[in-house]
Amino acid sequence: MNLTLSLGVDGGGGATAKKRKLRDDVGEGDGGDRARVMRLLQARDRVAKVELDHHDDDHGGKGGEGGLRLMRLLLSSAAAGEVGDTHAAAVALREVYRHASFRGSDPVERVAAYFADALASRLLLPSPPPVPATTTRAEQFLALTMFYQASPLYQFAHFTANQAIVEAFEASGCRRLHVVDFDVSFGFQWPSLIQSLSDAAAATSSGSNDGSGSSGGGGEQVSLRITGFGASTDELRDTEARLTRFADGCPNLRFEFEGVMNDGPEDGRHGRIRVDPAAAVVVNLVFPAAASSRESRATLDCIRALDPSLVFLIDRASDGSPARSRKSESLLPRFASSLRYYAAVFESLHECLPADSAERLAIERDHLGVEISDAMAASPDHRAADYWTETLERAGFEGARLSSRTVSQAKLLLKMKSGGCGGGFRVMEDGGDMAMALGWRDRALIRATAWRPCRRSVGKHDL
């Protein structure tokens, strides 16, 4: 079965102590510290005011040496702030604010401005900067919709995952498919799966009827139930409504969405999932490395209890960080990795949309900027990009090969969708046919892998 491309989108410890000490120093330190922070805030406010008053001005590119200098200043500020040198951290950030710009003509200027805000909020300021204003969920939905349509980044991830899910379902011999998505968000991944299952069921029914002489409404329906975990009741309700409306137009498919809030006890996740013993179970993990260690262990326990036929993992590609599977309480490795990742994403988006694009500005402000802020504000108890790969292996799963059809269709999708992005995106086959990555220029951005139980006994002490 070839996957149908359909978006179906319509409207709708140590570091903790250091952080506390830094903020105490800012709030209760001497007048020099207060003055430095106030000057930093004033510099940041001037950046925002100038851009509001002169938003059509060309700030001049900061690529090349200028861009590298901004990156070095940000890393210097992060390193200084982590060891408690608020003076050096603030001085470096003030210099970033002098040259960075949310509306700059160069993507390095823009990504530097967002990281400067996130870093200032985490290390130096008693409260987050007052601008840009917090985005609403509606604005985030619109920005994600525009990003989904403008860039192949998420489409590649979802398309590849769905093709592997379809193939696992076909191999199971079942007529019922149960997908457990531990971060369903707005549900953008699932319309193409719904459409593809419907098309396959219709083709099977047509083939059966050709030889049987039967008439009527076709063969047996395919059943799809998606259990989606989310952080908001309203968001889950809206996601259910969008997917249900889309599925209503797809014949030969019985669709059900089950939204589950993430606010329940983490060790009871499996008990909140209705399990159908007659269904093939597939787990979808999208960017799970952002979760805390407690959330990750709870998710892993739930996956093992579900005993899925396939686990599909989409995560940021590793950048060679030495932290690997161990949690890191240091901000600097995470900051450097995120800075490199988002610099590449901003550059790719810069080539996907015109320089004066209001859509690009909204995507960067209401989606990518929010992601940067959340990543920098997260608990220091985080996991490196390789954590889930290594953990799934220890938990009794083995890597599953990605079929040649999955790879070829991913390349076809990229060819269709990246024409306006200067040809900078590329499919990178990693580890033979065991993994596939989407890269920008020479940097891998996201990595897709499939996992299945290897049917060996693994105890919790192995994890």
TrEMBL record:
A motif (VHIID) lies at residues 177-181. Pfam families: GRAS. Residues 377-452 are annotated as: SAW. Residues 1-30 are annotated as: Disordered. PROSITE patterns: GRAS (PS50985). Keywords: Transcription, Transcription regulation. It comes from the Eukaryota. InterPro entries: TF_GRAS (IPR005202). Belongs to the GRAS family. This is Uncharacterized protein. It comes from Lolium multiflorum (Italian ryegrass).
